[in-house]
Specification:
Elements: E1 5-16, E2 19-30, E3 34-38, H1 45-52, E4 60-65, E5 69-72, H2 84-94, H3 101-107, H4 123-132, E6 141-145, H5 153-168, E7 172-176, E8 187-190
Parallel strand pairs: 3-7, 3-8, 5-6, 6-7
Antiparallel strand pairs: 1-2, 1-4
Helix pairs in contact: 2-3
The structure holds adenosine-5'-triphosphate.
Amino acid sequence: MSSNALITATGLGAIRGERVLFSALDVSLGFNEKLVLRGPNGSGKSTLLRILAGLTRPDAGTVETAGTHHWLGHRNGIKSHETPRQHLSHWARAWGSDADPEAIASQMGLARPMDVAGRLLSAGQKRRTALGRLLLVDRPIWLLDEPFTALDSDGRAMLTRMIDDHCQSGGGVIAALHGDAPFEASRELTL
Ligand SMILES: Nc1ncnc2c1ncn2[C@@H]1O[C@H](COP(=O)(O)OP(=O)(O)OP(=O)(O)O)[C@@H](O)[C@H]1O
């Protein structure tokens, strides 16, 4: 693996049913890089992110990583009874984080709904809660599946700053996106 890479994936292939989603695909992510994944619905962006996160085995190829990752899928993963404070506290404990979950929730614009159950949160509040997990522990690789979904303009600006800060401090991001990227992408990969 290149010493300049957070991720080096080589010869990746994924077959779903009769369909080859991709084959012989090489993907790399360098330090400070923002790689945007593009492609129509069903082209395999989520599948590729899951493979890079080690959640799904590729049908061909290898993935090498030089660090830990955060993966954020389409679903926010917040239980119906769980408040933003409880959700972030749970993951802070699970990951041995020293971060203050309440401070992170506030930073994510969740001071008001801090103690509101997940089932009552708006779509954007749920997404902000899920995004707060990225700040609980410092992991160099962020794998984000349509992370701007449901965010208002302030939320989009906030996530853009988070991504910029993360990459400026040596991390890398791969994000599947539809539409314009609110941040300046280093590279794009179309499936
Ligand atoms: N476990 C599975 N079994 C069968 N087909 C699957 C499975 N997982 C994914 N697929 C199919 O693989 C294709 C790629 O799905 P994927 O979610 O990776 O696409 P995507 O590019 O992320 O799409 P979108 O832009 O709609 O989110 C789809 O046609 C999907 O139905």
